[in-house]
Here is the input.
Amino acid sequence: MNKAELSNTIAERTGVTRAQAESMIETFVAVVTEELKQGNEVTIASFGTFLSRVRASRMGVNPRHPEQRIQVPEIRVAKFKTGKGLKEALKAATIIPSAQTAVANQAASASHV
Here is the structure.
């Protein structure tokens, strides 16, 4: 689901316009981004927690010259920790194979016939 599909779904379920729903999404993203930039966490009960962590600097390999080692600087990265409600909902959901997997399985079956 992309942003347009999400805003359409929110608009349908809440009775607001698509533009209002899109504005809500943009506001949500802006608020979460600002909080994470400040090093804060954003927790939505039963859904999860958005947080930022600093990934320590480390030695890496230059992809153009694999024999050359380079220093990768520390960087702040976004993380998401799943909440209990979301975890339970996902466990209870039936697993639906992706379209790619289904096509691959059909092709494999056809080659064995």
Summary: DSSP finds four helices and five strands in the chain. The radius of gyration is 21 Å.
